[in-house]
Design a protein that fits this description.
By secondary structure, the chain is an all-beta fold. The protein has two domains: about 150 residues, Immunoglobulins (Immunoglobulin-like, Sandwich); about 300 residues, 6 Propeller (Neuraminidase), CATH 2.120.10. About 0% of the residues lie in helices and about 45% in strands.
């Protein structure tokens, strides 16, 4: 036990881990995100500054949650890492259809009431005050999503099957895309991929989940058949775009079996599930926005039957967790001892990692060698051939920096180790020696060798 602690304290001190994955934020109580009752629970929107870590979110006030959710709205802001509430502001429009945007040219939060003609443009202070700054020509448009295209210097507003483009407060174009997705839900199921200049619509609540992308040059939507078979359709998920890594992130929701707490990535080519050590509780109706300075996505709120008022930070890891074979074992009386990760176990920082050793004799003793190299050990190159010791075909393939006993449960070895939270992104190697009198002259065999890349 002492040796084990010495080894792990030594490698953890290297501080190879950057903070990634899900981290709880001490930001105070976040704004409720599901204030409206059915049939319109997903109203309002959120935006994030590109010059600071400020996030603005607009919610329809609970006291006005009628069938149309019209009336007053309330703005909340994450300022300096703490949630603040703004004053209620009357919005004279059906359904309070207002999606905030951060105008990078004006360096201000803005929102457009597009349900009236002409449109009404508001500047929104982080403290939640709406300032009417005049009208913009345009016909009625119920908003599903709004974003700012920094390359073109325009705000794009999607809704009612159309797209409006607004630059410097003036409507420059309003059109129906030449190709559009079929009718369905949009609100809080779409994000702006600023690197590729595409709006990404996540139709993940349908029997055949699909992803659609809007091309701003061609003015058309295109379906991407990239949702994997293992993805379970769900409603009420949170989504956002992590600009630093170019990944769309999807979290949670609710399927036919209940609430979800899984995290998925979409990189414009494929959609994959993130295997994470820890993450927020399963929920529906959370929100997500990107902080430009901290380069993380912030998730807040939602419900699991009760309103959740917690706030989380998420940074996709660039380290792909793995446990891979780097060398073969040698045959024993029960076959070749084989290391493999136990069911649902992977090497993650801050977690217990469990390895099974298959094909051991039922009563054999076994030990696990753990090291940090597969090329040398104490100055000697690896692998080291053990034929001269009577172990024909066997080799030492990892540096033996520490040795641990392996439990034998009816011919299946079980070994576990706690990986320090500071070792994310690190690498270690292991290999088992299994004592087997019937195997060879020496009476022992070696398992395959494995390399673990620690996720976080």
């Amino acid at each position: 036990m002492i040796n084990r602690l010495v080894v792990w304290l030594a490698i953890a001190s290297a501080d190879v881990c950057a903070q990634s994955g899900w981290q709880w934020l001490s930001a105070g109580s976040c704004p409720p995100t599901s204030l409206c009752s059915a049939p319109f629970p997903d109203v309002g929107g959120n935006a994030a500054s590109t010059a600071s870590d400020d996030i603005l979110t607009i919610q329809v006030a609970q006291t006005n949650c009628q069938a149309c959710c019209g009336g007053s709205v309330r703005a909340y802001a994450l300022l300096g890492g703490q949630w603040q509430i703004g004053g209620a502001t009357s919005v004279p429009s059906y359904f309070a259809s207002m999606m905030p945007v951060y105008d990078q040219q004006a360096q201000k939060f803005v929102a457009f009431d597009t349900t009236v003609a002409p449109y009404v443009r508001y500047e929104v202070s982080p403290q939640g005050q709406f300032i009417n700054v005049g009208g913009t020509p345009g016909s009625g448009l119920f908003q599903d999503f709004a974003c700012f295209d920094a390359v073109a210097g325009k705000t794009l507003i999607f809704g009612s099957g159309r797209v409006a483009e607004i630059a410097a407060g003036a409507l420059t174009a309003q059109y129906t895309p030449i190709v559009s997705p079929p009718p369905g839900e949009w609100i809080n199921k779409i994000y702006w991929d600023s690197n590729r200049r595409k709006a990404v619509l996540l139709r993940l609540n349908e029997a055949q989940p699909a992803i659609w992308e809007f091309d701003v040059v061609l003015r058309a939507w295109f379906q991407r058949n990239v949702v994997p078979p293992g993805f379970v359709p769900r409603n009420g998920f949170a989504c956002g775009y992590h600009q630093a890594t170019g990944l769309g992130v999807i979290f949670g929701g609710q399927d036919s079996q209940g609430l979800r707490g899984d995290t998925w990535h979409y990189d414009g080519v494929g959609m994959t599930q993130a295997v994470l050590g820890s993450q927020p509780a399963s929920r529906i109706g959370a929100r997500m926005a990107y902080r430009a300075v901290s380069q993380d996505l912030v998730l807040w709120g939602g419900s699991n039957g009760n309103q959740l008022l917690d706030t989380w930070s998420y940074t996709p890891s660039t380290v792909a967790v793995s446990y891979a074979t780097v060398g073969a074992g040698c045959v024993g009386s029960a076959g070749i001892p084989t290391l493999q990760a136990a069911l649902n176990s992977l090497p993650f920082a801050g977690q217990n990692f469990v390895v099974n050793v298959q094909s051991m004799p039922w009563t054999s003793l076994a030990f696990m060698a753990l090291g940090f190299s597969s090329t040398s050990w104490n100055g000697a190159p690896l692998p080291i051939d053990l034929t001269s010791l009577g172990m024909s075909g066997c080799s030492i393939r990892v540096s033996v920096d520490n040795v641990f006993p392996i439990s034998n449960v009816l011919g299946v070895g079980v070994w576990s180790i706690g990986i320090p939270s500071g070792f994310g992104g690190g690498t270690f190697y292991n290999q088992a020696i299994v004592f087997d009198a019937a195997a060879n002259a020496f009476g022992a065999t070696m398992s395959n060798a494995k390399r673990a890349i620690v996720g976080y």
